[in-house]
Amino acid sequence: MSEATERPGPGRAPDPDAWERACAEDLAAEEARRRAAGGPGEQPGSAAEELRKLVEAVAGKVSSFQLPLAGATAQGAVREIVEQAKAAALPVIERNPEVFDHLAAAGSELLAAYRAAVTRQEARWTRDEPAHEPSAPREGEAKSGGSERIDLD
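The chain above was modelled as a monomer; its predicted structure follows.
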């Protein structure tokens, strides 16, 4: 029997972190294998590099479609349109890579703001809290004036 499968002898307690340690080792080994292979585990590049890869992948995929009902002329037209779009997009990406980094960061911030709003709303829904509704207007106040009376007393 190997050490890993042996039961602890009398007086020895089992290691409570053995499973966690083995999983962490396996995960580290898998990540190292993926990095070496350059597969899906590789770190993404800048936003501009990733956009360039996306444009090229989409262009390649669209160009490879076989349109059974359309003839060779239609496929040639599709390939031409794809190449024109690619030729227009790639120079913009190469000239302004920092713009795409900023856009990616802004998108991340917007997503974080959206998640915060949704999380807060879901928490209210699960607690069955009523939505915050403005109080009814007081006597002499307009119902829809876009302003609110504030008592300073």
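The mean pLDDT is 77.
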